[in-house]
Design brief:
It is a single chain. With 86 residues, the protein is α/β, with parallel strands linked by helices. Helices cover 49% and strands 16% of the residues. The strands form two sheets. The chain has a two-stranded parallel ribbon. A two-stranded parallel ribbon has the order 2-4. Helix 1 packs parallel to helix 2.
């Protein structure tokens, strides 16, 4: 799960923690973004890094509960297709 706040300040620690967590997952990693309330574009960077880690590990990556504002930002950057929803 992503935290309620995910900005540049929290991004590195969040990636480290979630990368450790995904190693314990089986074939599919589901990232829950429903708690996310305060974020900047760093939240997208975190999700993309997790997607890369899943690809390296041969695991399917899925995001659920993506806030509409973050989805709009992903569309603006042209990367919404890289964040498949559950």
């Amino acid at each position: 799960s992503l935290p309620a706040t995910l900005t540049h300040e929290q991004a590195k620690g969040c990636v480290q923690q979630l990368t450790q967590d995904l190693r314990a997952e089986a074939a599919q990693v589901v990232v829950d973004a429903a708690k996310l309330r305060h974020f900047d574009s760093s939240a997208l960077a975190v999700l993309l890094e997790l997607r890369r880690e899943c690809a390296r590990a041969g695991k399917r990556f899925v995001v659920q509960g993506l806030p509409s504002r973050l989805l709009d930002l992903a569309k603006l950057y042209g990367i919404s297709g890289l964040l498949p929803s559950a």
